[in-house]
Structure formats: C-alpha cells, structure tokens
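Incident review: delayed structure delivery

Summary: a single-chain prediction request sat in the queue longer than the usual turnaround. Root cause was a stuck worker, restarted by the on-call engineer. No data loss occurred. The affected request and its eventual output are reproduced below so the record is complete for anyone auditing the incident later.

Affected input:
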Amino acid sequence: MMKFKAKTIAEFLKGNIEGDPEVEVTDIAKIEEGRPGTLTFLANPKYEKYIYETKASIVLVNKDFRPEKPVLATLIRVENAYDSFASLLELYQQSKPQKTGIDKSAIIMEDVKIGENVYIGNYSVIEKNAVIGNHVKIYPQVYVGENVSIGDNTILYPGVKIYERCKIGKDCVLHGGVIIGADGFGFAPQAENNYRKIPQIGMVIIEDNVEIGANSCVDRATMGATILHKGVKLDDLIMIAHNVEVGENTVMAAQSGVAGSTKIGRNCMIAAQVGIIGHLTIGDNVKIGGQSGVTKDVKEGDILQGSAAIHYKDYWKSYAIFTKLPELRQQIIQLDREIKKITERDNSNIKDHSS
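Output delivered after worker restart:
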C-alpha cells in the first residue's frame, strides 16, 4: 500500500478527522491486530473493545460512534465505515501493477478474438471461436471452451473451466476451480434399474458484475440456459443445477445448492448450507437462514428458517419447544406414573366396594 496521510484519506472518503491529520499509514490491518503505520476500521459494535487497545494509526468509524474511553488512534468519521474501508481496498487493488500480455505457453486456437490489454497466463487454453473482451485477465491453467464469450474487465482466476458456448458478462470475477457449463444431472431411469443419460444441450449465461467463489459449479441447461443475472454473488462451494435462474443482486453463502429448474428472485439473501429442491419459484427479497431446506414455493419478502423451512418466527417458536422436550418428556413420564397410581387406587376401591 502506498503511503497516505490521514487528511488525504479523509478528503477521498469525505470524512471528518479527529486527531492528527498528518499521521501516515502504509498498510492495513484488522482492528484487533493494528500496529503503528496501519489503517483499520470499526463497523461492528462487537469489536468496539479493540478500538481502545489497537496500535493502528488511523481508524475509520461511523459518524455516530461515541467512544466510552479515550482512543489513541486518529479517527476518521464517515457515513459507513465498512463501505469506506472497501473503497480504500478498491483503490489499493487498482494501484497494484496490472498483468498484461499472453504467456508463450498459453494455447490459443484458431479464430479466437482477443481484445485490448488482455492477460492470458501460463498453460491456459483458449479453444476456437472464443471471444475475449478488453482488459480481461485469464490466470494460469484456465480452460475456455469453443464459442465461449467473455466480457470486458472479467477476471478468471487459476483453474477456472468454462465449457463450450457459455457466455460470461462484463466485470465478472470467477475464482479458482470454478466450473461453468458442465452437464446438468439428467438421467432417465430404465426398466433394468439403470439410468440413461439425457444429453445436456443448453448453455450457461452469466450476466455483468457477477462474482463466483472458489470451487463452485454452474451446470449447463438441458435445453435453453442456466442464468445468473447481473450482480449475483456466490460464495465458495456452491452448486447451481441445470436450468436454474438466479435474479439480480441475489447473494448466496457457502455450501448452498439449488436443484434443477428452480427460479430465484431478485435481491434474495441465502445463508450457508441451504438446500433448495427443484422446480420451485422463490420470490424477490426472500431471506433464508443457514442450513434450511426449502421444499415449496416461497412468496416475495418471506423469511424462512429450518428444514423443511417455515416462516422464521414459527421456526423459533417451534425451536423453543424443541429445546424443552427432555423436560416435557420427564413431566409426561411423571404424569403417567401419577395416573397409573390413581387408576390402581380407584380400581382397588371399586373391588373393596363390590366385595
């Protein structure tokens, strides 16, 4: 990171300084690991205790932050500390030397169209009729299949594999090990208790500004297209099956999976390890809690939790009962014993009266 003074950072972020405007930083750090010459931030109140201990020289804080004790670091107050820190990281990323050029070990087949200022790394393979946009970065050992198109400014990190005819938009990021366009899971059961493979002749369309985490897979459609609309963000180790459609700006955390032909709306938030069965419709602005299993359509704006997933308020009411089941079991056992005692006593009284 280049050397910056607090006043320069404050001007860039349109923030207000409390402390020494001349203090300089050359690196960034987590607030609990701050050291002299570093910049950090405080956005989550959970970490407030560290601001009174940190050795960082500059801390970004929200404008409404009110310290309970003296803070040694210079503070820069901004509207949103997390967003401002992200802006600085983007600035730092852009200041790094940019890779360009085509490595001599890369294999580029005939009729490939390559834009300006493209980087293609060691041992990458670009098959025939592929189209590579301007400022694209293709890191080592990437495979780009026939008739694939990749939009401007997209980054393919090492080991990405893109099968034939898939389309990747502009400003996308595909992290290491991502596979786009492998066959969907299509098998027809046969009379002999085996399975016949159904050819997967569709494609994958990834629109602009999509980011896909490491070792995630997006399968091609049986027919038509599997689609990730613009702004979708997928974490690591995510499975998107054939003919799935994910709406704009939907985010999905690690180890989640969506089965075939399900349609997910815009601006949804899907937590880690969520499973969604096939052929469902998930409305816009839906939130699904971690480790939930979704088995039916979800209406717009709903919030779900559990497996099978239900409305989150109903889930937590049910969970509260679930945690008391051992206690309730003991009460039932005790009641059963009392009932048996009463029944035995009543039966004994009846016998005495009858005799």
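Verification: The mean pLDDT is 93.
Action items: add queue-age alerting; document worker restart procedure.
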